[in-house]
Each structure stands twice: as C-alpha cells, then as structure tokens.
Amino acid sequence: MDYLRFALLSLILLYFFFPQSLYVKLRTRKYPLVKGKKVPNGKEYRAAVQEGTAKYPNDIFRLDTSNYETIVLPRKYVQELKSIPEEKLSSVMDLYERVLGKYTLIGTDARAHGFVNSIRTDLNKHLVHTLDPLASEARYAIEGCIGKSEEWTPIHVYAQALRMVSLLSGRIFVGKPLSRNEEWISASIQSTVDTFTGASILWRVHWLLRPIIAFFLPQIQNIHRQNKQVAKMLEPLIKERLSQMDDPSFKRPVDMLQYFLENLPKKDAQYQARLHTAINVAGIHTTSMLLTHVLYDLAAYPHHIQPLREEVREALQSSGGIIDKNFMSKLKKLDSFMRESQRFNPALVVSLTRKVIQDTRLSDGIILPKGSFIACDSWTATRDAELWEDPERFDGFRFEKLRMVPGNETKHQFVTTSPENLVKFVYDKGDAFKKATRAIQSPFLNKAAFKILDFLPTILPRSKSPDFHRAIFVSRKMLSRSETPVFVTSTTLWSHVEKIAAIALELAELGYPVTFISGRIFEKHVTQLHPNITFEPMIGLDDQLTKEERAHYLSLPTPEEQEFYLFNKVFVDSIPYQFQTYQSLFKAFQEKYGDGKPLINFHDITTTGHHVVPLGGPGISPFANVGLNIHPLTLDSDDTFPFRTFQSVGRKPHTGPDAKAIHRKAYEDVKNEPMTKALNDHWQAKLKEMGVVRKQYPDICHAFNAIPDYLLSLGVPGFEFPRSDLRPNVRYFGAFKKVGNQGHENKPHLPSWWDEVAQAKKDGKKIVAVSQGTVEINLDDLLLPTLEALQDREDILVVATSVVKEPEEVEGLVTPSNARVAKFIPYDLLLPMVDVLVSNGGYGAVQHALRIGVPMVVAGSGQDKAITNTLVEWTGAGINLESRKPGVQNIRNAVAAVLDNDGIKQKVSALSEEYGNYDLSKVLDQSVQDIVRDWEAKKRR
Q: CDD domains annotated for this entry (predicted)?
C-alpha cells in the first residue's frame, strides 16, 4: 500500500514539475542541434542560424536559444506553415511564452480572437480615415523630438524614435488629448522597455525560482504599476464613450479604444489597459527600431534623400495637398527605401515563430510535436544571392525597380505582405497578432519617414550593427546653390565639349556658379550658354587636333590604329597641360575660400590630368572628384570582357557557368596586346613625369571610371552589360535633353523642306533618319549607301544630316526623290518623328534615340562604337551590322527588318520608359548636396 501511495505521489509531482521542454526534446532529438555563441547578456543567434542553414539548407535543425529550444524549418515549408491555423500553430502563444506573459502580462488577454479580429476588420477598413490625423501627429512629433533648427543639431535617434512612435501610436489608440499626455507617453515607452528587460532577467533564473524573483523584480513591479496607471487614465474616457454609444447621433471615433469597446466582451479599464500595453510592447519597440534604422540609412546613404524629397513633393502636388490612400500609394521610392532598410537590418533572425498547440503533421509526414517552438530562418534569406542581386549592397530603390517588372506592380511594398515574399521583415502573413499590430504601425512609420525628409541627416559610416548610442546630426537648412561653386572640365574635342557643356548648363540653371575648363576655341560657345558659367582655358594646350593631325588620323588604315592615335594624342599627351591648369585654378580657389567651401570638380573622365594626385602624385586634391562618363562604362568586371582591348572591342559577355573565368582570362590576355601595352606604358610614363611613384598601375580605361569619387554615367542600367560588382558610387543620369544644337545657332535655321517631313508622317510614311556623326565623317561609309539603299521605297522618307559639310559640298551626293538632306537638324526636333535611325553608333546619338523611343540600325567600329552597337544588339533595341562600311544591301535589309519587327519596337519602348525615370538635373543636384553634406560632416568630426 505504501508503494502505491509513493507511486501515485510521484506521478502527481511528475505531472506538475516535469519540464515539458524535456518531453519535447525527447521527441525532437533526432534533429541536429546548433548552439548560439555565448555573449555577456545571453547568446548570439545570427551566426548560429547562418551556420545551421549552411549545414542543413533543406533540412530541419534545432536552435539552442536562451529561452526555448526552437525547431528551425527550411524555406520550403514557409507557404505550408502560413496556411496552418492559429489553433494548431500559435504566434500569440509563442509571444506569450517567450516574454513570460504570466509575469509581464503580455498576451494574457490578447489571445482572444476578438482582439485580433477587431484590428483585422474594423481598423483595417477605417485606416484611410486615420491618414490625415497621422500626418498632423507626425508633424507634431517630429517638431517636438527633432526641432525646427536650421543649424546642425545632434539627436539620439532611438530615444527620439520611441517617443515619436509612441505619439503616433497613441493618436490612433486613444486619440487626443490623452495620446499627448506625458504620463501616457512615459507608460507606453517604459512598459515596452520593462517587458523585454524583465523577461530577459527572468529567463536567466531557474523556472522554479521565477515566481519568487518576479515578485521582487523592479521591472515586473513597474509593469503592474504602469498597467494600473494606464487603467486609471483610460477609465474616465471609457465611461464617457460607453455613455455616448447609446446615442444615435454619436460620432464614432476612429481609434483602437472604440473598436475594442465595440468588439470585445470586457469593457473594464484594467482589461483595456492590458490590451493597449500588449499592442505597445508588440509595436512600439519594433517600429522604433525600424524608424531608427531608416534614419541611420538616410544618413549613411544620403544620395537617396533628394529623390525621396522630389517624390513626396510631386505626390503632394498631384494630390492637391491631400494626404490619403492614393497619396501614400505614390510614394514608391520611400516605400522601397524602408523595405530595403528592413532587408538590411531585420529585427529578428527568424520569422514565422510559433508554439505548437497540438501535434501537427506536415505534408511530407514530418510531425511537429505539441509544446515545441518552431521558426524559419529569415536572416539568411535577406542575404541570399539567389533572391537578391548583390545582396550585401544597400540599394534604397531596389524594391521600386522590382515593382517595375511587369506583373510585380503591387508586390514588394513595405505596407503589404505578399505570398511571394520569402523574406519576412519583422512580421509575416500568418502571424495573426503581429500582423494585426503591423496594420497599425506601418502607416505610422511611413508618415514619420516622409515628414523626416524635411531634415537633412548628415553622413555617417554605416556598419551592419550601428551604434545606437551615437547621435546623428540633422538640419532644416537647405543648400544654397548660388554659394556653392563647382568646376566642370572637358577634353578638347567637340564631341566631348558639347555634352559636358550640357551638364554645365544644367548646373548653371540650378543656380550653381560654374567654372568651365577646356580648349580656348570653345570659350564663346560655352560662355553664351548661361550667365552662371565662366570659362578658363587649358594652359599651353592645342585646341582640338590640328589639320595635320586630323589628316594623319583619317589616313590610318584601321579603326584600331585611329583609336590608338587618338588616345595617345588627346588623352595622354595632354596630362602635363591639364594638370598645370587644374592646380593653378585649385590653388586660387583655396586662397579665395580657404576651408569655407568644398572644392567640387566635375570632370570628363578622359581628362587624365586628374589622375596625377589620386594615383599618388603631388598637388591639391579636390574634396570630391565627380567623373562624367559619356561613353559605355569602362570599368573592369568579372561579368564582362575588357573594354580596353583594341583588337576585340564589342564582345558580348559570356553567359555560361564558366563566364567569370573566361572574362578574367580575357583581362590577362589583353595586357599583352601591343597597342594596349604601348598605351598604358605611355600613360604611366607621363604620370611619372608629374611625380607619380607606385609599383602597380591600373589600366588607363579602367582608371577613367575607377578614379573619381563619384561617377555620373550617361545612360540607364537597362542599356549596359550587367555587372554584379558595379560600385555603389556609379549613378546613371539617363539621356541628355538639351544637347544636339550645341555649337550651332541657339535657334537653328531649319531647311525649307522641313514641313514636308511632318506632312509625310501625317500621310503615313515611315521616316528614316541617317547621320554620319562628328568623328567618323566619311559619308561613303553610311550616309550615301543609306540614300541608295532606300531610294526605291516610296513608303519611306529619308532625312539625312551631313554634319561636317553643306549638302552641296558633298562629293558624289545624289539626292533621291524620297530623301531630304541638310547639314544639321537638332535631334530634339528630328527624332520624335523618326521610325528608324541609321547611325554609326555614337553613344550620345544612341542614347538620344533610346530616350525618345526610336529603333536603330547601327554600323560603326571606331572609338566606343563597337561596344555601343553591341549593346544595341544585346538589349534588342535594333540591328547591329557590325561594320563601318556595311554596304547598300545590308542597310536595305536591316531597315526593312526593323520596320517590320514589333519585338524591337516593344524593347525600345521599354527602354524609353526606363530613361523617363532619370533626370540629369536631379542627379547633379543630388550629387552636389551629398558632397556638401559629407564635407560638413567631416568638418564636424
């Protein structure tokens, strides 16, 4: 009998004291265990999760955490887990258990489905009515937390983010005036801090001792006191609401308190206080962290600020200043930036966290045992190269670009959770409690973020784990453009000057004082562009090529030899003259301004006099060298063949599995090509003459793009070979909108037959334009053969521009009846009427055609034309005839093929749309503002 009593007592004790976690461990021990690394306040799990996913990418493993051992499932289970109901896999119970809700009170009442449903249904339906109050509250919160100072003011971001989010949350939870009550704000913030701190302390205490320790723990005492305090503040408001709800004329407030009173069974203040505390804990900390990261990322990557400002300004203009759902939907860049900030800084290393309420069998037979805790690895997914292009690079507009892909227009949004989204930023679709909280918090963050754009965060070095104790500086002071002088430099070739002058004109029109440096022959043209532009000539440098030098250039038998001569004569021999000019002007700038202004130098990338100081030579270095690239990129890349080879320019990238190895081999081979080696030797010799001493030199073509601090490049990413290793300082600016009549009359004299072109277009004829360009000027190459090739096409009107000669001066020119010839017609006027452009592939002309949406037939091989024409073929924008002299029949066939090919037209149309997303003026303005912010930040350090 004593034996039976002892056995019964043992079973009772076992039932009450046997840790359920031990039972679960017995059922899950077949899965490998990965342990977190011990750190002073617990364990670090990021590395452990990465280790587990790397070892078991498609299998289950266990993660040893500081609270519950967690079963980590691979990504393949995500969709299935999200479809399993809360009754089986509970996110609410997971939160309750992990923050020790029995002591912290979190989740004690929030587990009721009515609580979640009131948010899911009523609040979500009425969110649109909260936008205007939130905008007002965001303004109040930011002005109170950050201030209105136009001077640079330090703020401690996380502390102020907590207060801002608390104000915004309170506005929608209980409304004014209670939301602005300091006691309410303090309780909202402190309950969040005390909950996580208290739970962390209790998890380090043996479970048998927790009730005793919790009773005396200051944080737990604070939580209970704060709940009573919140209940006391809510009680009169609840009584007032309940008394008014029976009145038919009662105007229903749009806040959480009203929804809870209408949808949940209990109306007492203590119950409502616990619900509001639960929402605060679940939302305020995570949202404050998100806002903190967004601000740090704005400070660290300030080139995003100006485009974001422009987007908000344009959205406000289009909405008539009304902040509503449509206004919010227009903030695609802001939405993308916040989403990328979350991708880079996920709040949790795992997502889909659940407690298993009952044994759950998955589709492949795996059983998740009752009482276990599960999750999916989300951290590794944020850095997965299979999901993201260049995942370690912060691209604030990454998700905007993804949404531009047809079919993705409503995906990749910060405020929505799509089934296709494998990476869960803080919350996930199946997490009922957290999703409900996110429905409230996301608009808050969006509101706060776009209001914060009134300020200018200074640049800070950005690490993956920013120091939240460090202040950032903000200011409302806008850059004074008229007090920010800049230099703009161009090589002394007309084909370069006309484009660099267009950039100078944009800067001048923005209000920046511009000093333009180039050959004296261009002074009149440049200075008449704008009063803000002054001209400084190159010292002792011949202007352009002499007649003898040009004759020698044209006499060379191959394009490669011509290119080699041009590189040496124009780009290398000019180094001493350019360097002397720059140093003289930079010295005068320093004498005038001292350290009171940043020295900003925009330069044509082929002005190699700028190579001396960055490569180690003596001299004054600008604070920022901004390279202006008006050609295809010349950067070395594992993803492309070399730009610099004279023998095989224009090769399309290899696309096989061994592509990188093949490209690297090509870079090694090209070093020994005679022309390439001779050019680099000549360039290095000139640099040594200027005092440069170094063991290794880059290739000159790579140096063109690699040396500048910033690189602004003509074109768009869609018209370039893909480069996974492209540096983040490269910014595209689309195509020129004001170039084409530079060097000609400001109001060009149009030919007498110009109206016939518009009439032909109206009559349904196809317009084909052909131009020989300004460098390869032999009209027998392309212009004359095109006139001959199309002379029998009555359905076509050919418009030809001879450029370097008047038509009557062109030897052998016979103008067919369906053709019109002029020396020059601005592309701005001509191309909008053109159906096909026949060109030798000048980069500027091709860019202009793509901006307007004109398909092309290209044929050329000199300078960068081989690469440009390969890009036309690569992107499907036209037909590449791969020859400087393609012949009459090839031109005839190619024009006919382009006119009949809808696929080419569609691809050109898509590229034209991409060009429409870029604006040179905005890119220039943004770049100068970024540089000035960086300069001011470094002055303060």
A: CYP503A1-like
Q: What angle do CA 770, 775, 780 make, to 5 degrees?
A: 50
- Delimit the CATH 3.40.50.2000 region(s) of the chain: 481-732, 754-917
Structure tokens at 595: 């350290």
Residues 199 and 106: their CA atoms lie apart, in Å, by 10
pLDDT for residue 121 is more than 60: no
Question: Among residues of the chain, what percentage have pLDDT more than 70?
Answer: 81
CATH architecture of residue range(s) 481-732? 3-Layer(aba) Sandwich (3.40)
Neighbour count for residue 360 (Cβ, 10 Å): 19
Q: Report the SS3 class of residue 631.
A: coil
Q: How is residue 706 written in tokens?
A: 């690699």
Rounded to the nearest integer, the mean pLDDT of the chain is 82
User: Using a CB cutoff of 8 Å and minimum separation of 24, what contacts does 669-677 make?
Assistant: 670/642, 670/644, 670/645, 671/699, 673/645, 673/646, 673/647, 675/560, 675/564, 675/646, 675/647, 676/644, 676/645, 676/646
Paired tokens of 890: 């090839």
- Torsion, Cα 405 408 414 420, to 10 degrees, reads -120
pLDDT of residue 433: 45
Contacts of 788 (CB under 8 A, 6+ apart): 816, 888
Q: What is the DSSP-derived secondary structure letter of residue 322?
A: -
Pairing mode, if any, of strands 373-377 and 350-356? antiparallel
Q: What is the DSSP letter of 222?
A: H
CATH 1.10.630.10 domain span(s) along the chain = 105-323+428-474
Tell if the pTM clears 0.85, that is, is over it: no
pLDDT band at 791 (very low <50, low <70, confident <90, very high): very high
Residue 166 has pLDDT above 80, yes or no: yes
Q: What confidence score (pLDDT) does residue 875 get?
A: 94
Looking only at the bridges linking them, the beta strands covering 373-377 and 360-361 are: unpaired
Residue by residue, DSSP assigns 500-539 as HHHHHHHHHHHT--EEEEE-GGGHHHHHTT-TTEEEEEPT
- Cα–Cα distance for residue pair 662/638, rounded to 1 Å: 9
For the record, the structure tokens of 700 come out as: 């000159």
Looking at residue 837, its pLDDT comes to 96
CATH superfamily membership of 105-323+428-474: Cytochrome P450 (1.10.630.10)
Distance CA(80)–CA(78), nearest Å, equals 6
CA distance 671 to 644: 9
Q: What Å distances lie between residue 546 and 34, 277, 516, 577, CA to CA? A: 73, 81, 22, 17
d(Cα 56, Cα 680) in Å, to the nearest integer? 50
Q: What does each C-alpha distance from 464 to 261, 394, 467 come to in angstroms?
A: 43, 11, 10
Q: Is the dihedral of CA 797, 803, 806, 811 positive or negative?
A: negative
Alpha-carbon distance of 139 to 167, in angstroms, equals 11
462-501 pLDDT per residue, tens: 444 455 556 666 665 666 888 899 999 999 888 899 999 9
Determine if residue 687 is left, alpha or beta; phi over 0 gives left, psi from -120 to 50 gives alpha, anything else beta: alpha
In this structure, the number of other CB atoms found within 10 A of the CB of residue 677 comes to 12
Cα separation of the two ends of the chain:
82
Are the beta carbons of 121 and 155 closer than 8 angstroms?
no
Sheet holding 533-537, edge to edge: 533-537, 514-518, 486-489, 600-604, 624-629, 710-713, 730-732
pLDDT of 615 higher than 90: yes
Residue 101 pLDDT level (bands cut at 50, 70, 90): confident
**Cα separation, 95 vs 411, whole angstroms:** 28
Fold held by 754-917: Rossmann fold (3.40.50)
Q: Is-contact 864 631, C-beta < 8 A? A: yes
Is the pLDDT assigned to residue 601 strictly greater than 90? yes
